[in-house]
Amino acid sequence: xxxxxxxxxxxxxxxxxxLGLGIAKALADEGxxxxxxxxxxxxxxxxxxxINAAGRGKADWVEADLSEADFVxxxxxxxxxxxxxxxxxxxxxxxxxxxxxxxxxxxxLYNFFQSMVVRVITLTNALLPLMQTQGFGxxxxxxxxxxxxxxxxxxxxxTLRSALVGWNKTLATEVASYGVTANMLLPGRIHTxxxxxxxxxxxxxAGKTVDEVRAASVKSIPAGRLGKVEEFAAAAAFLCSxxxxxxxxxxxxxxxxxxxxx
Length: 262
Hints:
Blueprint: E1 9-12, H1 18-29, E2 33-38, H2 41-54, E3 58-63, H3 71-83, E4 88-91, H4 106-134, E5 137-142, H5 155-175, E6 180-187, H6 193-206, H7 210-219, H8 229-239, E7 251-254
Parallel strand pairs: 1-2, 1-4, 2-3, 4-5, 5-6, 6-7
Helix pairs in contact: 1-8, 3-4, 4-5, 6-7
């Protein structure tokens, strides 16, 4: 299938590793000019160089931290100078520290709310007029399966990512007539460094080994394994495509059938 996005300009947040990097690579494979961003200049440069060496798309990068107050301004400047505009925005953020609902403090809640919700919405609103004017835009927000089936010991993530669900649905109805779609992509157990970190934290909390925790989680997945970043990224690329023009306001789960809800 021709996704019709060769030459499109895409900003992918938190793309120095993991799911964000996987999505950036998938979009570049379709011929997009991708802008990577994250906190590690070394990783970003290496990943951009690898994408450019592959020769299918083009990559630039900018060092930026979602937790910093000037993040949105820095990203707007980078979009202007490195991309010259925007067609695709992938809102991806790192996950907050594990913990229970009782362990949430006002300070932690506020700080992660700023980086995971406020700056995502502010940046999206700032880039929307460019998409609306040209009559094409794709806004894809990566969240978590915890928004429909809360994940134990991830209270902050369950809470903050759920805030984006109502926002995305509202936004989708407001911008659909401009040729702009807004969807959410929800990963289950996709094997990344983040999953390894969470398994280690859960193992410590439960007094078990990481292998025991991993085996129990895999047993609960009908597919019988963890997902691959490439599988998740392929779903992202489709939602950013021209053939997906009539798909908006949706949440797509990529979880190997793990969710028990309908």
